[in-house]
Structure prediction request, 359 residues.
Amino acid sequence: MRRNLVIAIGASLALATLQPVLAQEQPPPPAPAPVAASPADYAAAIESLAGKLETAYVEPAQGQRYAAMLRANKATYIQITDPMALAKRLTDDLRAVHPDNHLRVALGSPDGGPGGGPRRMRIGPGPAPGPGPGPGPGGPRPPAIEDPKWIADGVAYIKFNMFDGAPETLATLDAFMKEHADAKAIIFDARTHRGGGPAEMNVMLPYLYAQPTRLVSMDMAQSVVDMRGDPTRGDPNMRPVSAPKGVNRREHWVTPNAETRLRDAKVFYLTSTRTGSAAEHLALAFKRTHRAILVGEHTGGANHFGGFEPLGAGLAAFIPVGRTFDPDTDWDWEGVGIQPDVAVPADQALDKALELAKG
Prediction:
């Protein structure tokens, strides 16, 4: 898998190996059967969780609040003998301190997250609550790109299921942009977009903007960067900027290329409640720069990125270490999604965009 920045919908991950890749979660294998641990083992796991939140959570002040709560209640937690009940209690209590639907404790393994997933970190928004887009465990995944074509006179169309950053995907996308450079309108369909990274954005957006433009900002815990390196380093589209203590901040920019014909084209971006992660990153970029009209439903609300960390005692925790946000307002879409400009049911979004494109 490519080593580049992840804007992910989650995975079985671990801070310890920080593999900065950009992909959507593959369904994890079934969690191991719960086995009760000793109070001493649970105490050590809770202290491990407190330490990780204290040093790696994307909002340092909140991380310290989480840690203080865990330590204050440790004597109560170690009396819970059912590991599944303990994981749920810890999750509920953490979210009561500060709501973050990605932060959670689950049954895990010594090697990583639920089901014994590999020890790796994916840098990008984490999993949205509930089932994500795409088929269930073991089911086939659709291709990253589908249906690049003329869909009407002067109207180009392309559907994204994922930004996987693969060379063949980037080549297909660049060819699409070049072959449709005389379009009067382009429809980007992200209704089934399950996440990924910025490589595809860095291919398509230079065709659409007339001047260098700041898209979004991304924060990551400085402690994680210090320990494992900055996964955005070397990407000229990710510019480092000053940030509060404990935070590493980059701004995602677009720089126009030499092709000018699409700079005045209408752009429509189709969304649904299944649109998540990197697709939401692009939705916010389009919306705040007024370069596209969002048509459909609010997006899925999967912003915070991070990974699963083993805690010991058969437990693991998803630790959010970063977020993507509007640099003008500091707003992010965690848990709420991004609202469309033209609200219609997802299955009517394409017809509505065609109507607007022809108008």
